[in-house]
Write a structure and sequence with these properties.
This protein is α/β, with parallel strands linked by helices. It is built from eleven helices and nine strands. The strands form two sheets. A six-stranded mixed β-sheet has the order 4-5-6-7-8-9, with helices on both faces. A three-stranded mixed β-sheet has the order 2-1-3. Strand 6 (about 170-180), helix 7 (about 190-200) and strand 7 (about 210-215) form a beta-alpha-beta unit. Helix 8 packs parallel to helix 10. About 35% of the residues are buried.
Length: about 280
């Protein structure tokens, strides 16, 4: 069995330890909307394909979200770092406000200005002050490493490129990853709003902007997956299992919608995520 398959299985087992469960006599999956029969059915089918879940009380929504973020972060740590030969660099997987990173360092000045003059906050707004769920960043490199095999840089050139440490001390944001255990209509667009803020407020290259979710309903997945220009792609924790169940079910419209997103490269499996980070 391949390394990525093993890590995907371990990720699923980790979810079933405390986040993914079957609640009450009706065995309602913790990632399902109990008011939607289709959501419950699809979540059960997905869980069965993952190996089954433990019957127990579901976690509070906020705690489920935090646990989900931690498990996705661990999965990225365990897989992306194995791809050093495909994408060399000094990589960090963490959570910080956007002004911690080189592309958004100018936001510190705006924050300082607002702190000194609160009356202008209404004019400037504060939507640009984002703390992504997970950030993959790269440390700038010293000249000794840049010139390891030959003298590529010297005193007279490459004076502004942020990858060179003598020009910049801040980490470079490579990817912003939003973790949504489920997708509900009242907060489905949060990830899209955060993505647009990252794109509009950057100086320099835009980071990868990704969403990871365990939502079972294709129409809710479509609410953030369809369309281009803001989110790179949505990654599902068990896309193979969800797709397999739908193909065997009588829910033709839901199956067609899911495969429209797959064929359109708008949704992928969690196992694809580390390889897309390596691009």
């Amino acid at each position: 069995m391949s390394y990525i398959r093993n890590e995907r299985n371990a990720f699923h087992r980790s979810l079933m330890e405390d986040v993914l469960s079957l609640e009450g006599k009706e065995q309602i999956p913790s990632n399902a909307d109990r008011n939607s029969r289709l959501s419950v059915e699809l979540a059960r089918g997905m869980i069965e394909g993952m190996g089954g879940a433990i019957p127990r009380q579901r976690q509070a929504a906020q705690r489920s979200g935090r646990l989900f973020e931690e498990k996705v972060r661990k999965f990225i740590l365990m897989t992306f770092r194995k791809l050093d030969h495909l994408r060399p660099g000094s990589w960090i997987v963490s959570t910080n406000a956007v002004d911690h990173y080189e592309q958004y360092s100018h936001i510190k000045s705006l924050k300082t200005l607002i702190e000194k003059h609160p009356e202008i906050a209404a004019s400037l707004g504060t939507d640009y002050i984002i703390t992504p769920d997970i950030v993959v960043s790269r440390s700038p490199e010293p000249d000794a490493l840049i010139n390891l095999h030959s003298e590529l840089v010297g005193e007279d050139v490459v004076r502004l490129a942020p990858l060179r440490k003598r020009n910049n001390e801040s980490e470079l944001m490579h990817a912003s990853i939003s973790c949504k255990w489920t997708i509900r209509s009242d907060r489905a667009q949060n990830s899209r709003t955060e993505a647009l803020n990252l794109i509009r407020n950057r100086k320099g290259r835009a980071p990868h902007i990704m969403v990871v979710t365990a939502e079972p309903l294709p129409n809710r997945l479509a609410s953030i997956a369809l369309g281009t220009g803001d989110i790179d792609c949505v990654y599902h924790v068990a896309l193979y299992e969800l797709s397999s169940y739908l193909q065997k079910s009588s829910h033709l419209d839901a199956c067609e919608l899911l495969h429209q997103m797959i064929d359109g490269k708008r949704i992928k499996d969690i196992s694809d995520l580390p390889f897309d980070l390596a691009v």
